[in-house]
Design goal:
Helix content is 58%, strand content 0%. The protein is mostly helical and 105 residues long. The longest helix is centred in the first third of the chain and has 16 residues, at 6-21. The N and C termini lie close together (11 Å).
Length: 105
């Protein structure tokens, strides 16, 4: 197993901090996945859900678009977290690739 790079560790910490500061983002990401599963969809793209969240923030909330951004570098880690947190529901829901400088899946 290849050791994680400094950047991978830094990104993990950034995602942890972001989700701690913005738990509603994780809840909304999960809710979108739950809705898809309820419609019988067994696999979906995490990036697509991230873009829906971005749109919702811009159109459906009072969030200031200049101050509030969803970093694309976080998408795969948020998807991994959901699949790890709820494996019985979301195992295999998102296709995963090896993280650059990160731990293998």
């Amino acid at each position: 197993m290849e050791p994680m790079t400094d950047r991978a560790l830094q990104l993990d910490a950034e995602v942890d901090r972001f989700l701690s500061d913005n738990p509603h983002i994780y809840r909304q990401f999960r809710l979108l996945a739950v809705k898809l599963k309820a419609r019988g969809i067994e696999r979906y793209g995490a990036k697509s859900l991230w873009e829906v969240l971005r749109w919702q923030l811009a159109v459906e909330t009072n969030a200031n678009a200049k101050d509030y951004k969803l970093n694309n570098n976080y998408v795969s880690r948020v998807a991994r977290r959901l699949m790890q947190d709820e494996p019985e529901e979301f195992s295999g829901f998102f296709e995963l690739r090896r993280l650059r400088g990160g731990k293998p899946d």
